[in-house]
Design brief:
Elements: H1 9-25, H2 30-37, H3 41-48, H4 56-66, H5 70-82, E1 89-90, H6 102-109, E2 112-117, H7 128-138, H8 144-157, H9 159-162, E3 169-175, H10 176-180, H11 186-200, E4 205-210, H12 219-222, E5 225-229, E6 243-247, E7 252-255, H13 258-274, H14 278-294
Parallel strand pairs: 2-3, 3-4
Antiparallel strand pairs: 1-7, 2-5, 5-6, 6-7
Helix pairs in contact: 1-4, 1-5, 2-3, 4-5, 7-8, 11-14
Protein backbone atom coordinates (compact mmCIF):
# COMPACT_ATOMS: atom_id res chain seq x y z
CA UNK A 1 0.00 0.00 0.00
CA UNK A 2 1.48 3.38 -0.96
CA UNK A 3 2.09 6.14 1.49
CA UNK A 4 -0.80 8.53 1.92
CA UNK A 5 -1.83 11.60 3.81
CA UNK A 6 -5.32 10.51 4.83
CA UNK A 7 -6.23 9.92 8.45
CA UNK A 8 -5.64 11.76 11.67
CA UNK A 9 -2.46 13.80 11.84
CA UNK A 10 -2.09 12.96 15.53
CA UNK A 11 -0.73 9.40 15.12
CA UNK A 12 1.30 10.39 12.04
CA UNK A 13 3.04 13.22 13.89
CA UNK A 14 3.63 11.09 16.96
CA UNK A 15 5.01 8.19 14.97
CA UNK A 16 7.33 10.52 13.11
CA UNK A 17 8.59 12.03 16.35
CA UNK A 18 9.34 8.64 17.89
CA UNK A 19 11.13 7.43 14.77
CA UNK A 20 13.22 10.59 14.60
CA UNK A 21 14.19 10.19 18.26
CA UNK A 22 15.19 6.57 17.64
CA UNK A 23 17.35 7.56 14.67
CA UNK A 24 19.02 10.37 16.60
CA UNK A 25 19.61 8.08 19.59
CA UNK A 26 21.30 5.64 17.22
CA UNK A 27 23.41 8.59 15.95
CA UNK A 28 22.44 7.74 12.41
CA UNK A 29 22.33 10.60 9.85
CA UNK A 30 19.30 10.78 7.57
CA UNK A 31 21.45 9.89 4.55
CA UNK A 32 22.74 6.74 6.24
CA UNK A 33 19.24 5.68 7.32
CA UNK A 34 17.92 6.26 3.80
CA UNK A 35 20.73 4.18 2.32
CA UNK A 36 20.13 1.33 4.78
CA UNK A 37 16.42 1.29 3.95
CA UNK A 38 16.98 1.91 0.23
CA UNK A 39 14.75 4.98 0.44
CA UNK A 40 15.29 8.62 -0.54
CA UNK A 41 16.28 11.15 2.11
CA UNK A 42 13.11 13.23 1.40
CA UNK A 43 11.04 10.17 2.29
CA UNK A 44 12.71 9.93 5.70
CA UNK A 45 12.04 13.64 6.22
CA UNK A 46 8.35 13.29 5.26
CA UNK A 47 7.97 10.37 7.67
CA UNK A 48 9.65 12.16 10.57
CA UNK A 49 7.54 15.29 10.09
CA UNK A 50 4.30 13.32 10.01
CA UNK A 51 3.39 14.15 6.43
CA UNK A 52 2.69 10.57 5.38
CA UNK A 53 1.18 7.40 6.79
CA UNK A 54 3.29 4.25 7.05
CA UNK A 55 2.93 0.51 6.75
CA UNK A 56 3.67 -1.35 9.98
CA UNK A 57 6.26 -3.43 8.08
CA UNK A 58 8.14 -0.26 7.11
CA UNK A 59 8.16 0.78 10.76
CA UNK A 60 9.52 -2.63 11.70
CA UNK A 61 12.40 -2.19 9.24
CA UNK A 62 13.17 1.28 10.58
CA UNK A 63 13.12 0.08 14.17
CA UNK A 64 15.45 -2.77 13.27
CA UNK A 65 18.16 -0.54 11.82
CA UNK A 66 17.77 1.90 14.73
CA UNK A 67 18.15 -0.88 17.31
CA UNK A 68 14.75 -0.31 18.96
CA UNK A 69 13.63 -2.75 21.69
CA UNK A 70 11.02 -5.36 20.73
CA UNK A 71 8.23 -3.84 22.84
CA UNK A 72 8.77 -0.37 21.40
CA UNK A 73 8.86 -1.82 17.88
CA UNK A 74 5.54 -3.53 18.53
CA UNK A 75 4.08 -0.30 19.87
CA UNK A 76 5.19 1.76 16.89
CA UNK A 77 3.92 -0.86 14.45
CA UNK A 78 0.54 -0.58 16.15
CA UNK A 79 0.68 3.19 15.93
CA UNK A 80 1.47 2.91 12.21
CA UNK A 81 -1.85 1.15 11.66
CA UNK A 82 -3.61 4.16 13.17
CA UNK A 83 -1.97 6.58 10.72
CA UNK A 84 -4.40 5.41 8.06
CA UNK A 85 -7.51 5.84 10.20
CA UNK A 86 -9.85 8.68 9.24
CA UNK A 87 -10.82 9.13 12.86
CA UNK A 88 -9.65 7.00 15.70
CA UNK A 89 -10.73 5.77 19.07
CA UNK A 90 -7.46 4.54 20.42
CA UNK A 91 -7.68 1.61 22.86
CA UNK A 92 -4.22 0.97 24.27
CA UNK A 93 -4.96 -2.63 25.15
CA UNK A 94 -5.93 -3.54 21.59
CA UNK A 95 -3.22 -2.14 19.33
CA UNK A 96 -0.50 -0.54 21.39
CA UNK A 97 0.99 -2.24 24.46
CA UNK A 98 0.18 -0.98 27.92
CA UNK A 99 2.70 1.57 29.10
CA UNK A 100 3.15 3.22 25.69
CA UNK A 101 1.43 6.51 26.49
CA UNK A 102 0.81 8.52 23.35
CA UNK A 103 -0.62 11.40 25.36
CA UNK A 104 2.65 11.98 27.20
CA UNK A 105 4.36 12.71 23.89
CA UNK A 106 1.67 15.20 22.92
CA UNK A 107 1.83 16.82 26.34
CA UNK A 108 5.60 17.31 26.10
CA UNK A 109 5.28 18.88 22.66
CA UNK A 110 2.43 21.24 23.61
CA UNK A 111 2.91 24.92 24.36
CA UNK A 112 -0.46 25.29 26.10
CA UNK A 113 -3.22 23.08 27.46
CA UNK A 114 -6.76 24.04 28.43
CA UNK A 115 -8.35 21.34 30.58
CA UNK A 116 -11.66 20.64 32.31
CA UNK A 117 -11.80 18.04 35.09
CA UNK A 118 -15.02 16.89 36.70
CA UNK A 119 -13.82 14.21 39.11
CA UNK A 120 -10.09 14.20 39.86
CA UNK A 121 -7.18 16.62 40.01
CA UNK A 122 -5.33 16.62 36.65
CA UNK A 123 -2.08 14.66 36.66
CA UNK A 124 0.07 17.76 36.18
CA UNK A 125 -1.19 19.15 39.49
CA UNK A 126 -1.32 16.02 41.65
CA UNK A 127 0.73 15.48 44.80
CA UNK A 128 2.56 12.17 45.19
CA UNK A 129 0.03 10.89 47.75
CA UNK A 130 -2.94 11.81 45.58
CA UNK A 131 -1.33 10.25 42.50
CA UNK A 132 -0.61 7.03 44.41
CA UNK A 133 -4.24 6.80 45.53
CA UNK A 134 -5.52 7.26 41.96
CA UNK A 135 -3.11 4.71 40.47
CA UNK A 136 -4.01 2.20 43.19
CA UNK A 137 -7.70 2.44 42.27
CA UNK A 138 -6.99 2.28 38.54
CA UNK A 139 -4.66 -0.72 38.90
CA UNK A 140 -5.85 -2.94 41.78
CA UNK A 141 -3.16 -5.21 43.21
CA UNK A 142 -0.29 -3.17 41.78
CA UNK A 143 3.02 -3.94 43.49
CA UNK A 144 4.73 -1.36 45.67
CA UNK A 145 7.64 -1.02 43.23
CA UNK A 146 5.36 -0.57 40.23
CA UNK A 147 3.24 1.93 42.13
CA UNK A 148 6.30 3.98 43.00
CA UNK A 149 7.43 3.89 39.36
CA UNK A 150 4.02 5.07 38.12
CA UNK A 151 3.96 7.91 40.62
CA UNK A 152 7.53 8.91 39.78
CA UNK A 153 6.66 9.18 36.08
CA UNK A 154 3.58 11.24 36.85
CA UNK A 155 5.53 13.63 39.07
CA UNK A 156 8.34 13.96 36.52
CA UNK A 157 5.77 15.09 33.95
CA UNK A 158 5.03 18.08 36.14
CA UNK A 159 8.39 19.66 35.32
CA UNK A 160 6.67 20.90 32.16
CA UNK A 161 5.04 23.53 34.37
CA UNK A 162 8.16 24.65 36.21
CA UNK A 163 10.94 24.40 33.64
CA UNK A 164 12.91 27.60 33.11
CA UNK A 165 12.63 27.64 29.32
CA UNK A 166 9.15 27.91 27.80
CA UNK A 167 7.09 26.40 30.63
CA UNK A 168 3.76 24.93 29.60
CA UNK A 169 0.82 27.35 29.86
CA UNK A 170 -1.90 25.49 31.73
CA UNK A 171 -5.48 26.73 31.98
CA UNK A 172 -7.61 24.41 34.10
CA UNK A 173 -11.22 24.41 35.26
CA UNK A 174 -12.11 22.07 38.12
CA UNK A 175 -15.58 21.04 39.20
CA UNK A 176 -16.15 21.66 42.91
CA UNK A 177 -16.68 17.89 43.13
CA UNK A 178 -12.92 17.48 42.65
CA UNK A 179 -12.34 19.41 45.89
CA UNK A 180 -15.00 17.57 47.86
CA UNK A 181 -14.04 14.02 46.92
CA UNK A 182 -11.58 12.76 49.56
CA UNK A 183 -8.99 10.85 47.54
CA UNK A 184 -6.49 9.09 49.80
CA UNK A 185 -7.85 10.52 53.04
CA UNK A 186 -8.46 13.87 54.69
CA UNK A 187 -4.84 14.85 55.30
CA UNK A 188 -3.83 13.87 51.77
CA UNK A 189 -6.66 16.03 50.40
CA UNK A 190 -5.66 18.97 52.59
CA UNK A 191 -2.14 18.81 51.18
CA UNK A 192 -3.46 18.37 47.65
CA UNK A 193 -5.66 21.45 47.87
CA UNK A 194 -2.85 23.48 49.42
CA UNK A 195 -0.69 22.39 46.48
CA UNK A 196 -3.36 23.60 44.05
CA UNK A 197 -3.36 26.99 45.73
CA UNK A 198 0.42 27.19 45.45
CA UNK A 199 0.53 26.10 41.80
CA UNK A 200 -2.30 28.43 40.81
CA UNK A 201 -0.10 31.37 41.78
CA UNK A 202 2.47 30.56 39.09
CA UNK A 203 2.32 32.96 36.16
CA UNK A 204 1.84 30.19 33.58
CA UNK A 205 -1.04 28.49 35.42
CA UNK A 206 -4.62 29.77 35.55
CA UNK A 207 -7.01 27.76 37.71
CA UNK A 208 -10.72 28.25 38.28
CA UNK A 209 -13.29 26.20 40.17
CA UNK A 210 -16.79 25.63 38.82
CA UNK A 211 -18.93 25.74 41.98
CA UNK A 212 -22.00 23.60 42.52
CA UNK A 213 -23.95 26.86 42.64
CA UNK A 214 -23.15 27.46 38.97
CA UNK A 215 -25.86 24.94 38.10
CA UNK A 216 -25.83 23.34 34.67
CA UNK A 217 -22.95 23.96 32.26
CA UNK A 218 -21.47 22.29 29.17
CA UNK A 219 -18.93 20.33 31.18
CA UNK A 220 -21.80 18.15 32.41
CA UNK A 221 -22.29 17.05 28.81
CA UNK A 222 -18.70 16.86 27.55
CA UNK A 223 -17.11 15.21 30.56
CA UNK A 224 -13.38 15.79 31.24
CA UNK A 225 -11.22 16.86 28.29
CA UNK A 226 -8.06 18.74 27.37
CA UNK A 227 -7.30 20.96 24.38
CA UNK A 228 -3.62 20.92 23.44
CA UNK A 229 -2.02 23.62 21.31
CA UNK A 230 1.49 23.50 19.93
CA UNK A 231 4.34 25.96 19.25
CA UNK A 232 4.37 27.99 16.06
CA UNK A 233 6.97 27.50 13.36
CA UNK A 234 8.98 30.27 11.69
CA UNK A 235 6.00 31.05 9.43
CA UNK A 236 3.66 31.46 12.38
CA UNK A 237 1.83 28.17 11.77
CA UNK A 238 1.27 25.51 14.48
CA UNK A 239 3.87 22.74 14.35
CA UNK A 240 1.00 20.33 15.04
CA UNK A 241 -2.77 20.82 14.77
CA UNK A 242 -4.70 21.66 17.96
CA UNK A 243 -5.84 18.39 19.47
CA UNK A 244 -8.61 17.45 21.89
CA UNK A 245 -7.89 14.59 24.27
CA UNK A 246 -10.35 12.76 26.50
CA UNK A 247 -9.19 9.98 28.80
CA UNK A 248 -11.52 6.96 28.94
CA UNK A 249 -11.51 3.83 31.08
CA UNK A 250 -11.00 1.49 28.11
CA UNK A 251 -9.69 3.90 25.49
CA UNK A 252 -8.63 7.44 24.78
CA UNK A 253 -10.16 9.89 22.35
CA UNK A 254 -8.01 12.13 20.15
CA UNK A 255 -9.70 14.68 17.88
CA UNK A 256 -7.95 17.11 15.56
CA UNK A 257 -10.53 18.05 12.93
CA UNK A 258 -11.07 21.85 13.09
CA UNK A 259 -14.84 21.52 13.57
CA UNK A 260 -14.39 19.11 16.47
CA UNK A 261 -11.76 21.29 18.14
CA UNK A 262 -13.97 24.36 17.72
CA UNK A 263 -16.83 22.60 19.48
CA UNK A 264 -14.65 21.82 22.47
CA UNK A 265 -13.22 25.35 22.45
CA UNK A 266 -16.79 26.66 22.69
CA UNK A 267 -17.54 24.22 25.50
CA UNK A 268 -14.44 25.27 27.43
CA UNK A 269 -15.33 28.96 27.12
CA UNK A 270 -18.76 28.19 28.55
CA UNK A 271 -17.27 26.23 31.43
CA UNK A 272 -14.74 28.99 32.10
CA UNK A 273 -17.48 31.62 32.25
CA UNK A 274 -19.45 29.49 34.73
CA UNK A 275 -16.41 29.22 37.04
CA UNK A 276 -15.35 31.49 39.86
CA UNK A 277 -12.53 33.89 39.05
CA UNK A 278 -8.98 33.01 40.08
CA UNK A 279 -9.01 34.77 43.46
CA UNK A 280 -12.40 33.38 44.47
CA UNK A 281 -11.26 29.93 43.35
CA UNK A 282 -8.17 30.12 45.58
CA UNK A 283 -10.35 31.19 48.51
CA UNK A 284 -12.63 28.20 47.97
CA UNK A 285 -9.64 25.84 47.72
CA UNK A 286 -8.25 27.20 51.00
CA UNK A 287 -11.66 26.99 52.65
CA UNK A 288 -12.19 23.34 51.71
CA UNK A 289 -8.60 22.54 52.72
CA UNK A 290 -9.41 24.00 56.13
CA UNK A 291 -12.46 21.78 56.40
CA UNK A 292 -10.32 18.70 55.79
CA UNK A 293 -7.87 19.89 58.45
CA UNK A 294 -10.60 20.39 61.03
CA UNK A 295 -12.04 16.95 60.36
Amino acid sequence: MPEGTTGSTVPRRQLGRYLRELREKARMPVKVAAAELEWSTPRIWRIETGQVSLRSLDVRDMCEIYGAPAELTKALMGLAKETKAKGWWHAFGDVIPEGFDLYVGLEEAASSIASYESDIVPGLLQTEEYAAAIVSVHTPGISKDDLEAWVRVRIERQTLLTRVTSPLHFQVALSEAVLRRAVGGREEMRRQLAHLVYMSELSNITLRVVPFAAGTHLGMVTGPFSILRFPLDKDGKPTEPPTVYADGYTGNLYLDKPKEVDQYETAFRGIWQAALDEQASRRLLAEVAGEYEQG
